[in-house]
Amino acid sequence: MVIVVPQLKKQAIAWVVLIVGGVASWILVKNENTAASLHLLVAVLLFIAFAKVYLVGRYFMHLNTAPAGLHIAFTAYVIGTYAAVTGIYLSA
Amino acid sequence: MKLNTEEVYESPPGSATPLHGAVSIERNATSRRVPGEPGLWVFLFLDLSAFSLLFAAYVYYRGQQPDLFEKSQQALNPVLGSVNMFLLITSSLLVAAGVAGIKFYGRNMERAMIGGALACGTGFSIIKIIEYGQKSSQGLTPLTNDFFMHYYVLTGIHWIHLMIGMGILIFFYLRVRASPKTSIGRTFLEGGACYWHMVDLVWIVLFPLLYLLK
Known about the structure:
The complex is a heterodimer of chains A (about 90) and B (about 210).
Chain A: H1 6-30, H2 38-60, H3 68-91
Chain B: E1 7-10, E2 23-26, H1 38-64, H2 66-73, H3 78-104, H4 107-137, H5 146-178, H6 186-212
Antiparallel strand pairs in B: 1-2
């Protein structure tokens, strides 16, 4: 009897999205010469990275089934770190 | 029965092998629980916060010497960094499958998945050694300039975390192999898995910062 575990399916989908995000980052950087703005390119690059971080936390670290407070704290960490790193880069 | 919440299958009491007669148990908002244990998350957040400071410091100092950092970055191999990214993301999926395996499919599944994750971690380490070897053969050391100081410190600290994570996975693998019919504790397993996922997500940020940032 084969049992399909819903959580594993979500994690497999998250893996695919993580790989696609990595490919998207490559394409973004390879096309930097045609980018309208280098700052915008970097902001998007870092957004992809931190979106991937959120996916790992939500689906691999099981924060989607964790108490809301823990999920919110992790989300705040991701957003806060993205904002800080991007803000420092843009202000240079 | 239509479920609008996370559906969880629990094995019958006493079963330790691929389960039969699984019973579906609805998990609702009131049955949410902390993955691993709360104390572990205090540690994880502190560790992640430390890495956040390192990320911010790197970007700050990069802004002070953009030409130096840009030129030095050319010496890095983003292909190797991307392969490492793939290895760690895949290892996270394997660890997650291993955690699910101990609950739903039995010990053999868990051993296979954790063994796969260990192989990915070993691959990452081999690539890291190759990278460090290539850099040092070119005379690029932590003392070369600020970029390489940051590169070696950031990747070195991450690598230490990865090796600690591999130690945890080796412990899981050996415990399961030595005692295939006993439980190593869902809390311990989930906690160790969360630590490994943290190692993964740190590299997810480190790679674009060091290898791709323009």
